[in-house]
Design goal:
Order of helices and strands: HEEEEEHEEEEEEEEEEEEHEHEEEEE
CATH architecture of the largest domain: Beta Barrel
Strand order of the largest sheet: 6-5-4-3-2-1-12-11-10-9-8-7
Helix content: under 10%
CATH topology of the largest domain: YmcC-like fold
Strand content: over 45%
Distance between the termini: 55 Å
Number of strands: 23
Shape: elongated
CATH class of the largest domain: Mainly Beta
Number of domains: 2
């Protein structure tokens, strides 16, 4: 496939000592095996069995091996073997390399030229990575998540994937229904000799703790276009309960939220501000804020990244003209012009420590500010955040079943920067309410207006 040199170099990266793989949508414990059967309605009408095993792994990098040898396939079935390298990252599963025997000669050529074409759709793992390698599957996998990616040996295949939620599915490996995450991907490749076979709609069903259990391809080309399918026949991996997929802080481009906020001592007239997700890439986003009414005229932006370790505020910048006079914030070790201020609801929400929210929040989780750390260098705050549970909360925008977080925050020498913050996040909405009881006995209250 023209990739042997790259993969041969990659082999040296993997340590001989296996690492323990955590449960995921593509687990890789050292003893894991999967047997798939795949077919194509035009180019491989003889269903072909292949066995996939974990060959090597080191921490978050792992190498999968597959073969059709010894699988008792009928005469005429394609014979194949290969290797495919992956990496677990905080933003999802990434395919880093591959090597295999060439696809059957009857298959469409998935490149603009015949020579050194490194693309194939002959096999389950190739079906999994076609169109999107970074990531193959995004994480955290939350409600309505959509992401764009590229694939192919020359990154000339583009795709847009959408997580469509959970559904029960039966396959030969699991004759009783199991819960699977369903992902639809629209894939396009232009200029390949094998067009329009290269462009398709792919649907993947993944079971947590097992991996892909079914993949279907609907290729372009009209009523007689090929259909490719792969199903899991057997595995030694057991289905696990998947983590919750509620999205408590949507970062879809165009998402808007309008808030009003007051402080019982320092700003009794509400400041009304509007936030909009202005730009997104790889589950990171820029959120812009603008003034609507009230004593704080503000314009600015905030940067957020959603990863498996949670929602992190990575930067913020605002321009402000304020009639409201707030007490100073610390920390003492920073000059005054580098200290934070409370000018917007997001300033109150992100103050003190990251993550703002864990990726799969559940009641009882807690985390603490650390010193030394980037957050302590910025805020000089110590304290903890605990997920209390769910609570119905009523605000001008409506009534929501919200996840409640409580933070205890202490900034030495600065009462206004110390106190207890209670934040309420609703699925599909984000922050809907926040109450910060400052140590100077004032209370800041934020509510979602619309």
């Amino acid at each position: 496939m023209g990739r042997a040199v790259l993969v041969a170099c990659l082999f040296a990266v993997f340590a001989a000592v296996p690492a323990t793989a955590q449960a995921s949508w593509l687990p890789h414990p050292a003893d894991a095996t999967w047997t798939y059967e795949w077919s194509d309605s035009v180019y491989n009408t003889t269903p072909t069995k292949e066995k996939v095993t974990v060959k090597e792994q080191n921490a978050n990098a792992f190498l999968l091996e597959w073969t059709t040898q010894g699988m008792e396939n009928p005469a005429g079935a394609p014979q194949a073997q290969g290797l495919m390298a992956f990496q677990d990252t905080s933003s999802g599963i990434v395919n880093t390399d591959w090597q295999s025997t060439p696809p059957p000669s009857v298959f469409p050529i998935l490149c603009p030229q015949v020579a050194k074409c490194g693309n194939s759709l002959a096999g389950t793992l190739y079906e999994l990575i076609w169109g999107g390698r970074a990531p193959v599957l995004a994480a955290p996998l939350l409600s309505k998540l959509t992401w764009a990616s590229r694939g192919g040996a020359d990154s000339d295949v583009t795709s847009v994937s959408q997580y469509q939620g959970r559904e029960q599915i039966t396959v030969p490996a699991f004759p009783e229904p199991v819960v699977a995450a369903k992902v639809r991907t629209d894939i396009t490749q232009a200029g390949a000799i094998g067009d329009p076979y290269c462009s398709c709609v792919r649907t993947v069903w993944c079971v947590y703790g097992v991996g892909p259990v079914k993949i279907t391809f609907e290729h372009a080309g009209g009523a007689n276009a090929p259909i490719t399918q792969s199903v899991l026949l057997s595995t030694n991996q057991a289905p696990l309960m998947p983590p919750p997929d509620a999205d408590y802080f949507p970062l879809a481009q165009g998402t808007k939220a309008r808030y009003r906020w007051t402080n019982s001592k320092h700003m009794k007239k509400p400041s009304v501000q509007e936030f909009v997700v202005a730009e997104t890439a790889n589950q990171s986003a820029r959120v812009d804020v603008k003034h609507i009414s009230g004593p704080i005229r503000v314009a600015g932006s905030y940067g957020f990244a959603l990863r498996t370790d949670g929602l992190t505020n990575i930067w913020g910048a605002t321009r402000v003209a304020s009639l409201a006079k707030f007490p100073n914030l610390g920390p003492k070790f920073l000059p005054a012009n580098r200290r934070r201020h409370f000018f917007t609801p997001y300033d109150l929400m992100t103050y003190g420590m990251n993550p703002v929210l864990t990726a799969y929040p559940q009641a009882g989780e807690n985390w603490a500010a650390k010193s030394p750390s980037r957050d302590f260098s910025v805020f000089g705050v110590t304290g903890t955040t605990t997920i209390v549970g769910n609570q119905r909360v009523k605000v001008p925008a409506g009534t929501f079943d919200a996840l409640v977080l409580r933070s205890t925050l202490s900034q030495a020498g600065y009462p206004f920067g110390s106190g207890t913050r209670t934040s309420y996040f609703a699925p599909g909405k984000g922050l809907v309410k926040l109450v910060f009881r400052h140590a100077d006995r004032s209370v800041s209250t934020v509510e979602l207006v619309k």
